[in-house]
Amino acid sequence: MTGSRLPIFFTLISVITFSGHAKAFGFNDVIDKARTMSDETYKEPPRAPDFLRNLGYSDYQSIRFRPEQSLWRSGGSRFQVMMIPQGSFYSNAVRLHVVDSEGVHPIGFDKASFDYPNPELAKRIPADLGYAGFKLTYPLSGTGEQNQFLVFGGASYFRGVGANQSFGLSGRGVAVDTGLPSGEEFPAFTEFWMEHPRAGADVMVVYGLLDGPSLTGAYRFEIRPGKSTRMDVTAQLFFRDDIDQLGQAPLTSMFFYGDNTLRPRGEWRPQVHDSKGLLINDDITGEWLWRPLVNPARLQLSYHHVQRLGGFGLIQRDRQFHDFQDSEARYDRRPSMWVKPTGAGEDGWGEGEVVLVEIPSGAESNDNIVAFFKPDQAVKSGTSRNLEYSVIFGEPDITGQASGRAVRTFVGKGSGSGDSGEALRLIVDFKGGELAGLRPDAAVVSQVSGGKGVEIIEHFVEYIEASDVWRLSILANPAPDQPLELRGFLSKENKPVTETWTYLLGPSTDIRGIPK
CA 173 to CA 97: how far, in whole Å? Predict the structure, then answer.
């Protein structure tokens, strides 16, 4: 998939009413299925025929679902459902069901629901092929027009947007051993149940059954579209095997280059990325940590410890067209995505690490960024784990962050007296929070530290009137063949007034932030 295109409490829902009638299906039923499957040997799901899996991306995109065939098009529901065809990356069918006051109803495959690019392809489509997933629509614009806002398709991936946004980064049900030498496992949703919303409802519930070699899972998604689209997620995971690196609530995005890199040769656009950086909040310390993304020369994993996770997300802070100058991709309209543990008591998800995986990429068509929470608690076969959290797609303010933010990071060769060797000059512009309204001569102080072998030659802060930012300037010299690791924030009267900016530049990556 590509980003431009791919002890804790939980709620048990046993009965939900529709117009006064009870239904005999709920979250407990999905949990029971997942638990039973976890005791059985994993079986790979049937794959789509070779001719569909070998379709090129553009050929696959030319298979179009007919909107008039949308589920619930009549009947007063504000939610409608469009089906996703199998083909290309979408190589497995998922079973789909509707749950209403009369029970559970399978959704049968209908090849006539799609327009195909040519008759030859159409006639080769099996009548029992099945769907690869589904898209939800809702009148986000307020005009009555149905807008796509949430897509479940491909392994355990889902993508969402708020009003007036374009699809970008993705979420996943779970990640297994992402970035490790042992190789990544991709569990997949194999079955979904969609509760039929009442007429005029603005909330919808979907259940998902997850299956993979190392685990199974039951998921409940309570979905609220709007200016920001929110999903309240309840999940119960059952482990077939030990897992070295479990990724809870993983996010996947794309970063090709940005203002902290030079442009690749031949590129004219100022920046190309779905997300600008990783934001983390620690509930215990109160710290907000911002990590600008890079496109490294080699696979790069960063581990950010938290005592208790307040939230984490991949954020697209650049919101102006001139930040990208791309009239087709509209990266300025790509959503941010924020994950926050909910309803889990004092300990939340416990201690752990927010892991950032950055993969070298030579094109914007590749999802090369993954972020997830790795719990300190070991994952052992035969055990289970319950999770509750919210996932929000929307503008950068969905985080609720009040501190000053790093709005730009620039990196270049060091210059000026005192510069030596491979010294680099890093510029970080902060804005907002307690910085707003300060006098230009306010006593704002820079606080900077470096990682192993990093020499901090100098750092200072000044107010830049032209752009109304407080600019932190750092001159640093990394040790030979060592990464450049830096942390910095601004303070006033010995109290932080900004988030903590942190940066990692690998030894094999030049100042452009892309492979040499």
Answer: 19
